[in-house]
Structure formats: C-alpha cells, structure tokens
Design brief:
Histone Acetyltransferase, domain 1; 3 domains; 14 helices; single chain; binds coenzyme A
C-alpha cells in the first residue's frame, strides 16, 4: 500500500497545471530574457491543453512563450527538471502461459470495482486472448514489472474463413488513468490484429461511454492518414471506399468507420457556413434516424405479432418528438466529436 501511495505521489509530480507552466513575457531589452519578475501566466490554457488544463509527463515544466514588445515576434522554449521516459511494456498472451491463469484470477477482481456490468470470463476457453500493460522499473538494479492495465479479447468465428475478435473487458488501474495508456493499449491491439490476414474486423462487447470515447480517438487517429478519408472525399459523404480501406488497413468495422468519417468530416466542415453546416447536420441525422425507420417498417410488418404496449409506445412517438430527440442526439454527438478532435489536435 505504501509503495502504491509513493508511486502515486511520484506520478503526481509529473502532472503540471498548464496555467502555471506557461510563462509569457513581453521582452523590451535583452536583460528581460533572464529577468523572472517580468513574466506572467495565462488565465486559460484549455483551448490548447484540454479542459483539465494540465499535462502529464514533465516535472517542473516551464513553457516559455516570449514576445518582443513592438513587433510581437515570438521566442518559444520548453524547460523541465525531468521527464517520464517510455517505460511501459505491452505483452500479448493466452491461458497456456504458465502461471497466467492464477495471475488473471487475481487481476480480474479489479473489474467489480471499476466496471458497472463486470463479469468474470471462462479462461479455460482458448479463444480468449489477453493484452497486458506493465510498468518496468528497477529495484537494486534488477528489472521489476508492475501491473498497469489489461484487455481481454474473444476470437469469434466469422463466415466463411475469418475471425472476428471482440473486445471483452478493458481496465487501466486508476493510478495510471489519464496518461494515455488506454489509447496506446487499444492502438496496440488494433495493430496486432491488423498483422493477421485471417482477421475480418474488430468489435466490442457492450462498450462503456469512456471506452467509446477512447475508441473514437484511436480509430480516428489511425484513419486520418488514409486516402479514403482525405478532406475532399469526406465532404462528399460516407463511401464504400472508406469502409473498405478502414477494414483492409486497420480491421475497423463498418459501424466504426462511419463514426470516424463523421468525426473527421466535422474537422473539415466550416460550421459557421450555413450550407456546409446544414449538409453535415442532415448527413449525421440521416444516420441517427435509421433505427426509427427500421422500427416503423418492422411495426407495420409485425404489428399483429407485437405486444400492444409496444405498438402504443411507437404510436406515441409523434413526428415532433422524433425530431426533438434527433436534434438532441445530434447536438450531443457533435459535442462528443469535438472532444475527440481536441484530443487529436494535441497528438
Ligand atoms: C476507459 C479506460 C480504459 C481509459 O484508460 P486511460 O488509460 O485512462 O485512457 P487515456 O489515458 O488514453 O485517455 C483518458 C483521458 O486522459 C486524457 N489524457 C491522456 N494522456 C494525457 C496526458 N498526458 N495529459 C493529460 N491528459 C491526458 C485523454 O485525453 C483522455 O481524456 P478524455 O477522457 O477527456 O477524452 C479507463 O479509464 C478504465 O479502465 N476505466 C474503467 C473501466 C472501463 O470503463 N473500461 C472500459 C469498458 S470495459
């Protein structure tokens, strides 16, 4: 316990308040460069560093942004006393690894504290695959490993000769959350399966809100370089080329590549332009309305088989209620997308 507290304390030293770390200065004379009393801090840094206005990875961070007083030409420099070095290892394994079964039994007890619908898995089923993240540190000169987080994936069969891995659980232990481990782990898993030609695409079981946020970010980051997601193509709408390239290159399924398309299209859409913003809104809303259309078709076809209360509920959902629901969902979807784009901009 004391070790964990020490580790937490140590990691906290590497988290910086960016409102304090940024030092602005108006330089009149060369001596001003060395004069600490003339610098000042910004009030806001969330537009560059995100809502938390913090950055992880540096101790005693100082971001110097100096302006010459007349022409306002800038000098930019970053100082810190120490920096977190890459010291994390990703390991892929299955249940045949000696001692892993017992280790996993202990590891999965954390799920009940941090996942609302946690369930323990049958590890004797050899279709489960495990991806672990460890922190590597030295004790008396010897390497030691500390558990950071993990992900379980089940390899489902996909007709006729492919596999479709489904992410089961993912957990980054709280002292390590918010440091990018989740994103790196998911990207590693995506890359791992991409190397295997028998993998069709990757899905996830009952994804939580946080997981969807993480996945949106990772998949958008992977797809932004793809030819099919070039700005001029994004403006023309979601295409078969996008589905194909995202699946072929990164094993991303159609549903997820559609979300990636909407996120990346938002980035190249001028939302203050009425034509562009209305085209974007219609496109997203058309996708959001698909379940309503399906429901209506189904209701007509199966009306005699459906329970009365379900039919009554459907009838109640008037057109205006449907529109109101679509508008609310659209607004919250765009808000989520903007959040992803802010994180992408910080990469
Ligand atoms: C969901 C989960 C796996 C994410 O793992 P994580 O390691 O915290 O993920 P990341 O660090 O990559 O990203 C998390 C946040 O930290 C931020 N972050 C990452 N690195 C950062 C840094 N260096 N400085 C500041 N913020 C940083 C990210 O921007 C992200 O912010 P957002 O949530 O506002 O978008 C983890 O929170 C978890 O285990 N939760 C509980 C279990 C759960 O819900 N599992 C998923 C369903 S099974």
């Amino acid at each position: 316990m004391a070790d964990i507290l020490n580790l937490e304390k140590k990691l906290a030293e590497y988290k910086c308040d960016t409102n304090k770390a940024i030092r602005l200065k108006l330089v009149r004379f060369a001596e001003d460069l060395e004069d600490e009393t003339t610098s000042f801090s910004p009030l806001y840094s969330h537009q560059v560093f995100g809502d938390e206005e913090s950055v992880f990875g540096y101790k005693d961070l100082e971001i110097q942004l100096y302006y010459s007083t007349c022409s306002l030409t800038t000098f930019f420099n970053i100082k810190y006393s120490s920096k977190v070095i890459e010291k994390y290892d990703n390991v892929e394994t299955d249940i045949s690894c000696p001692g892993f079964k017992e280790y996993h039994e202990r590891l999965q007890t954390f799920l009940i504290w941090f996942i609302e619908t946690a369930s323990f898995i049958d590890v004797d089923d050899d279709k489960w695959q495990f991806f672990l993240v460890f922190e590597k540190y030295l004790e008396d000169g010897s390497p030691r490993y500390a558990t950071v987080g993990y992900m379980t994936v089940y390899n489902f069969y996909a007709y006729p000769d492919k596999m479709r891995p489904r992410i089961g659980q993912m957990l980054v232990l709280p002292p390590f959350q918010g440091e990018g481990h989740g994103a790196r782990l998911l990207e590693t898993v995506q890359r791992f399966y991409t190397a295997d030609p028998s993998i069709l695409d990757i899905t996830a079981e009952e994804p939580s809100e946080d997981f969807v946020k993480l996945r949106d970010f990772v998949l958008a980051k992977l797809c932004e370089e793809l030819h099919a997601f070039a700005p001029e193509k994004l403006k023309k709408g979601f295409s078969a080329e996008m589905i194909d390239e995202a699946r072929r290159t990164w094993r991303i399924n159609k549903h997820h590549s559609r979300r990636v398309y909407e996120i990346l299209r938002l980035r190249v859409t001028n939302m203050s332009d009425p034509v562009q913003s209305s085209e974007y809104r219609l496109d997203v809303k058309r996708r959001l309305a698909v379940p309503f259309k399906k429901n209506k078709k189904e209701a007509t076809r199966l009306s005699r088989l459906m329970p009365e209360d379900w039919l009554a509920q459907q009838a109640e959902m008037s057109v205006s209620q449907e529109q109101e629901y679509l508008e609310e969902t659209y607004q919250s979807t765009v808000e989520q997308y903007r959040h992803i784009l802010e994180r992408l901009a910080r990469v």
